[in-house]
Amino acid sequence: MNALSRIVIIGSGAAGMSAASRAKRLKPSNDVIVIDSSRWVSFAFCGLPYLVGGEVKDLDELLYYPPSEFTKRGIDLRLNKTVIEVDPDSKKLTYVDNSTGTKESLEWDKLVLATGARSKAPKLWPEIRGARNVFYIVHMESGQQIRDYARSLGPGKRAVVIGAGYLGLEMADNLAKLGLKVTIIEALGQVAPRMLDPELAKIVEDNIRSKGVEVVTGAAVERFNIINSTATEVVTSKGTYQGDMFVVGVGIEPNNELAKQLGLKLGQSGGIIIDERTLTSNPDVYAAGDVTEHKDLVTGQLVWRPFAQIANKMGHVTGSNLGGVDSVFLGSVGTSAFKVFDVVAARTGLSASEASKVGFKPVEVSLEAGTKAHYIPGGSKISLKVVADEKTGRLLGAQAVGFDETAFWRINVVASLLTRGGTVWDLFNADYGYQPLLSPVWDPLVIAARLLMRTFGERPW
What we know:
By secondary structure, the chain is α/β, with parallel strands linked by helices.
């Protein structure tokens, strides 16, 4: 790069602003410009359900920093502007001001695509376009619109949530907190179908039902019936369900239109394929966040994982490289979690069935154990599954469901081991802390390791 290099970043979310801040901090001579179609920067989409339920009081609370903070850092923010054309040969882009319609062109030395993901809802069900009571996440204001409409309906009205993944379940929880009667509709045969095995998903589903929420699984949405721009019901393969409002929490894809214009190499999901430095197939174009595919550290294959923690790390690596500091993002192991009503669910790596599909011969153990010393009142139970490779004893994945936050941190322990290629014996030998109020002396993870060692032996040789 030249002494003065113009870096243009498209996308002002977690990945984009992390890249911008890092590139400017490491090399202040960089001319860093960020363009986004919204008016928000450094925002947290993951917090939108909690805005709906009232735990987060104001939309601004979901910003890590206000726009003024980035302006102080010398970053040129061009918000409420949509990039409509990018030309890799001239290294020029064109954007339009969303308010005035005015077009402007801009040249770059290095370009960063941090355009995130978009909802497929209008593509899946075109009839919902313009329906005033059907909502899906498009931008930050989406959460506020859902909250305001739910509050305008008031307690006792019916909210139908489409999809029982992370977003759908969290939205259902928070709509129920507003007093609405909630129905969850899921096309597949269980809740959290891409995260949990059926027996663990049943624990989650039973808990949701116990809170008065209706759960309908195996019900593929066929269409919405719309009258006077208002959805009245959703028709599924299992019947028709009426509602006063509908929230679509299913179906996102990489926002890759600009990547296609640039002729970048895309993966099976449509995400941009990047290397460990977050470079694309064009040496002058980087990509970070939910628009990308990256390496799965368990399988070695490319994956699309639109997770916030991954986006932030990618943005940091991108900005480091643009700032002259060599940095790498090696990949991820697929760690995720949610908390819905009283239950916490988390997973990392592969399930046994997923491991089989990619060529491993998995060994799996399941157990239920206490999360505190047995003599401490108020302890709860955790249901835990751990998977390892029969040939090597290498850990492949884990899932946990429980009624306190230890389900979350125990999965994070396994995730750390997966990242380094850890084994059953590493799981046993890890030096877990012990305190009766916080954990039993035989931690559930150690118990899982002992059960696995019945197959693998006490020593790794």
